[in-house]
Amino acid sequence: MLEIIKAIIFGIVEGITEWLPISSTGHMIILDDFIKLDCSEEFMEMFLVVIQLGAILAVVWLFWNKIFPFQFKDRQKPVIEQEKMVLWCKIIVACIPAAVVGILFDDVFEALFYHALPVAIALIVFGIAFILIERGNESRRPRIREMEDIDFKTALIIGMFQLIAAVFPGTSRSGATIVGALLVGVSRTAASEFTFCLAIPVMFGASLLKILKFGLSFTGMEAAILIVGMLVAFIVSVFVIRFLMDYIKRHDFQVFGWYRIILGMVVILFNICGIIHV
């Protein structure tokens, strides 16, 4: 029962931090040092990635009408909505840089940068970036206001920022892509929606690779921990995504920038004091 409670806590943290641009990695590093699951190191490595599937299913559920290109009318053959197919092509283009680099060098980057100091630096640097970009945008109007208006060139640029997150843990995938989108003139709403959509193939791909690497030989307790973590991440993600989309209609991202800076300093302090050991 204690391990299930721990899985619930991990699911809550994942559901909150995956979509807010504050780095789920930074929070998981701290959480993992305070709440240890009674499992193997290999399972924990897989769990921290596959739990994201619960979060991504929340995006699929909430954005179904925006992303599903097949419509059935009067029980006839499905009608393919061209605009949504084009959107998926843009999503694929944006995912290519991170997918290629991630498949080839994931283990290398994890060994080099999955440590407290690199994560803390990434938290602080992108926190500062959020503040500076938002202050610079105060007097400018975005040139792209709707997600559907993002062109292929802009999608590729956003994808290059996603690549930064793939290399440097603590950057935050959502944080990096939102920063990139804001820099090239995409509105906060469109940037957030496109970021959510980008997560679908990225997280499904990353989870599949981790499951294949770990294998399907779960114990009963491991399966329970994984299912509970994913379910909680799904439920929490639904509320967090709705909150974020409502929040950015009236506010900018500066508060998340300040939060990232503070969290980065906390990670550094905890590491110096020996509280965290990653």
Automatic annotation (TrEMBL):
Keywords: Antibiotic resistance, Cell membrane, Cell shape, Cell wall biogenesis/degradation, Hydrolase, Membrane, Peptidoglycan synthesis, Transmembrane, Transmembrane helix. One of its GO terms (cellular component) is plasma membrane. It catalyses: di-trans,octa-cis-undecaprenyl diphosphate + H2O = di-trans,octa-cis-undecaprenyl phosphate + phosphate + H(+). Its main location: membrane. One of its GO terms (molecular function) is undecaprenyl-diphosphatase activity. Bacitracin is thought to be involved in the inhibition of peptidoglycan synthesis by sequestering undecaprenyl diphosphate, thereby reducing the pool of lipid carrier available. Belongs to the UppP family. This is Undecaprenyl-diphosphatase. It comes from Frisingicoccus caecimuris.
